[in-house]
Amino acid sequence: xxxYFRRKWRDREKAEPYAAPDxxxxxxxxxxxxxxxxxxxxxxxxxxxxxxxxxxxxxxxxAFCDGAIYRYEADRDYPARDATSRLSADLKWGTIxxxxxxxxxxxxxxxxxxxxxxxxxxxxxxxxxxxxxxQLAWREFYAHVLFxxxxxxxxxxxxYENGIDWRSGDGRDEELLAWKAGxxxxxxxDAGMRQxxxxxxxxxxxxxxxxxxxxKDLLVDWREGYAHFREHLADxxxxxxNGGWQWAASTGTDAxxxxxxxxxxxxxxxxxxxxxxxxxxxxxxxxxxxxxIHSWHELGNEERDEAAPDYPAPIVDHGERRERAIETFERAxxxx
Length: 336
Ligand SMILES: Cc1cc2nc3c(=O)[nH]c(=O)nc-3n(C[C@H](O)[C@H](O)[C@H](O)COP(=O)(O)OP(=O)(O)OC[C@H]3O[C@@H](n4cnc5c(N)ncnc54)[C@H](O)[C@@H]3O)c2cc1C
Description:
binds flavin-adenine dinucleotide; DNA Cyclobutane Dipyrimidine Photolyase, subunit A, domain 3; globular; Serine Threonine Protein Phosphatase 5, Tetratricopeptide repeat; 336 residues
């Protein structure tokens, strides 16, 4: 249980960051520069990846702790707001250490009162720092889950009596391809899948939405989604990725209950009310207003053709697929 783990984690004294290593004891680089990605035999990535390395990571951490951390609780679920730390790839690759990040949150918490105009605002700012720390605790939690249950990489954490009848035929491969390409006709899903290709990153709220869409609306095994994310995410981390996918598929620890299925249209409406995030990543919808984007599934073909002729109609009916997923999970649990 995450909440129990988090309480224990919160009350533990945290270790100090290590001192910087002695440069003379590090590996020597011959010549002037490190080898390029081409020298190492890899193709240049297609995605535009944010600058890497410890200086860049520290820059991101400082900028975040100077302002956005105090709005994190309110803004973190809105993908157009750029309100999160964007430290995931740094934490994954070790270009910044978790102890350094945690220490910076102590500083941010101590400074919370200085910019706040009132005692209530200072409390809100401190709560917001705590909310950020909770996300760091999720990272610790999933690392523990993986350490003590290494089989979760390939198997459900939570067993279902009859096994889940993931789809294998009846158009499943075409739907999986449409999901990967960001061409499902569900704007928030497609925006997320295209952000993944463009930036090797996806906002957390949208990761949850696209993962729910794949495992529930399309009833495709979470392992397919995990493999795709593993290939494309710059921050791919076995423990966090697996934890996120198993949560969405209702097979993990603290998992989303199988009957609580995200509605991609209402999620889009709630978390991208102005359609800003969708328009950024789905150029076919760039000139379309938010109302049309959020009612895309309800429009007739003629209306859709007029608004955005190059953007597809929804590939599935969410209401029907929702029912089908619930029935499938009920059978998996041992029901008729
Ligand atoms: C299906 C799915 C797959 C995911 N795959 C990955 C993955 O491969 N690698 C990865 O680091 N995160 C993964 N996450 C968690 C989360 O989406 C990212 O950590 C977050 O979006 C990274 O952006 P950020 O650094 O701005 O996060 P912030 O909101 O600023 O959070 C700070 C840090 O806390 C950690 N964190 C935040 N949320 C979570 C979470 N839910 N679970 C575990 N750690 C978290 C990350 O290290 C993150 O950098 C996944 C989530 C889902 C739903």
